[in-house]
Structures are given as structure tokens and as C-alpha cells.
Amino acid sequence: xxxxxxxxTGIQGYVPEYIxxxxxxxxxxxxxxxxxxxxxxxxxxxxxxxxxxxxxxxGAEAIKGLLKKTNTKAExxxxxxxxxxxxxxxxxxxxxxxxxxxxxVNAFAYDIMAACSGFLYSVSTASKFIETGSYKKIIVVGxxxxxxxxxxxxxxxxxxxxxxxxxxxxxxxxxxxGVQDSILRSDGSGGEFLHLKAGGSVKPASYxxxxxxxxxxxxxxxxxxxxxxxxxxxxxxxxxxxxxxxADDVAWLVPHQANxxxxxxxxxxxxxxxxxxxxxxxKYGNTTNGTIPLCLWEWESQLKKGDNIILxxxxxxxxxxxxxxxxxxxxxx
Length: 333
Ligand code: UT7
Hints:
Elements: E1 5-14, E2 18-21, H1 22-28, H2 33-40, E3 44-47, H3 55-69, E4 79-83, H4 94-102, E5 108-112, H5 118-131, E6 138-145, H6 155-158, E7 163-173, E8 178-186, E9 194-196, H7 207-211, E10 217-219, H8 221-242, E11 252-255, H9 260-270, H10 281-284, H11 291-299, E12 308-315, E13 319-326
Parallel strand pairs: 4-5, 4-6, 11-12
Antiparallel strand pairs: 1-7, 2-3, 6-7, 8-13, 9-10, 12-13
Helix pairs in contact: 3-4, 8-9
The structure holds oxa(dethia)-CoA.
């Protein structure tokens, strides 16, 4: 019997309507469009407005679109994996809430928390469930409402993040398409440079944590930047070597969109030209778990069956990784 691989067979994104421009940020903090653009590559980001809406609502929109597009019934879904750093609540999982919202009554569902690398960790996890033959239809969602944990008085973080979601359908392939290899890494000693101080079990919410603004993202930008440049490039180079790929073999690099300078460094190390790098950071900023599926969604029409694609991410934890996959379909299927 031929080996089963796990292929992405559909992709859908969702971004909220509201556009937060660099110009508007200039009215909130002491910053300017020129600084933001040259240091990060970001021009605008989307913000989810509206009472009672969270990451699950964006993720559910992406899933609904995905089901429609792939002619899949919600009841057919075996598993929903949700990568998020901004769950609707600490529990239940955002995946469970989304399963309910889309009517995936036969799916088991859980969240994976690996900050900006969560989507990669989740795709890799899903691929194992499929490769064993246990499950046939898995949806992996990356969704984050970063605006819920961003301090709009802190110019070093509020310029970076945005809200958004993306979802992929993963199914077995008998022809060898889909995930070929993955390298996932973590280093908890990096936690001190990028974290959210309060609201967890160590420091539950209190008047004091609110007064101290400890429910917002804390980032020491420089050490995170350095680690991101090194690790994302290292792991992308490693996955190419391990699979005997040279730059010509790679059709697309799909990097986490945290900072254009980090992306450029990774592409340079891989020897891949700008024309092969998916980049939409200028429109959406860093949507954490949304970045990679949103890129795939926007580039879907350009992807061809058999394309070699490298996904790469780095984020809080620290966590990082790279996935090599063979694209499974021509978009006008
Ligand atoms: O996705 C999760 C992983 N996260 C990342 O990968 C993010 C990694 N880090 C970064 O992308 C960058 O470190 C930042 C974009 C966060 C910051 O850029 P930087 O080039 O590292 O700037 P910096 O922190 O070294 O700050 C340089 C200067 C400072 O002023 P002084 O001390 O030189 O006078 C900052 O106060 O720029 C100042 N600055 C700003 N100026 C205008 C910081 N933020 C701003 C701002 N507008 N928004």
C-alpha cells in the first residue's frame, strides 16, 4: 500500500473590515509612517471591532468559507485544531467554540499554543493524525485578535500587530502531496523577552495587574529580532539541506510576517529571490497565527500542483520551525 501523506486541499482567510493605518497610529502614540515602514514594512493592519467578538468569530468565518469552497459538510470534519495566542477564554478551547459555531458536530477540537509558530506546530500535528490513517478531514485554523492584548499607548508593540485568521483543510494524499518534512523547535529561556505578564495562573487578574498594564503584550524587541533572524533562517536552510532542495527547487517561501527585515534575512539565507517570497505584512501587520494561512490564501491562485513550498515561523516561547510541503492542487480545480 502506498504511503499516506497529509495535503492541504483548501484554504480560506478572514480579515476584519476596520483598517488601522500608520496615520491613525500617529494620533495614538509618538510615531510616524516613515519609522514604521522602514523598521517593519507595515502600512496598515485590520482590527476586529464589535462587542462580544473574539478569535473564534474570525476563525469560524474562515472555516465557513473553507467548507463552502471545498464542498465539505461540517459533519464530515474529524478534527479542528486551533492555533491561537488570544483564545476567546482560557477555557473552553477556541477550537471547541468554533466547532460549535460551524456545526462540526463530529469533530474533536483543541487549541495549540505556540505563539506565532502555532500554525506550523498545528499543521505538523494534523499531518501526523492523517499519516497514521486515523483521520481523513482535519481543519487547522490560525486566528488571533491581537488587538485584545495590545497596549495602544506602547509604540514599540502597537504598531506591529493586527487581527486576522486563516483555515486550511488537510486530507490524505496517496500521490505524495502535502507535508514532506517539518522541523519544530522551542527555547523557553526566550520567554522573558516576549510574554504577557498577568491573567495566567502565576499572576491572576487583579486591580493591581490592571493598574500595571500587565494584560498586554510585553516585548523586548531587539533580542526577539536577533533570535528571529537567526533561528528562522537556520531552520529554513536546514530543511532545504535535509531534503536536498536548492533555491531553484523552491517555488515559494511563506514566512511568518513579523518584520520585513526578518523575512528578507531568511530569504537571503535560503538564496530565494523576492519574487518567490509571500509578503503581505504591509496590509495586515503581524496577525500571529494568521500570517501564514493568510499568505497562502492570498497567493492561492498562483500556486500550482507540485510546487515546493517552505513555511517558516518564529515567535514567543521562543518557538520556531519550518515545514516543507508539496502543493496538492491547481487553484482553479
Ligand atoms: O512575531 C513574534 C516575534 N516578534 C518579532 O519578530 C519582532 C522582533 N522585533 C522587531 O521587529 C523590532 O525589534 C521592532 C520593530 C519591535 C523594533 O525595531 P528596532 O529596529 O529593533 O527598534 P528599537 O527597539 O531598537 O528602537 C530604536 C529606536 C528607539 O529610540 P532610541 O532609543 O534609539 O532613541 C525607540 O524608542 O526607535 C524608537 N522607537 C520608535 N520610534 C518611532 C520604537 N518604536 C518606535 C515607533 N516609532 N513606533
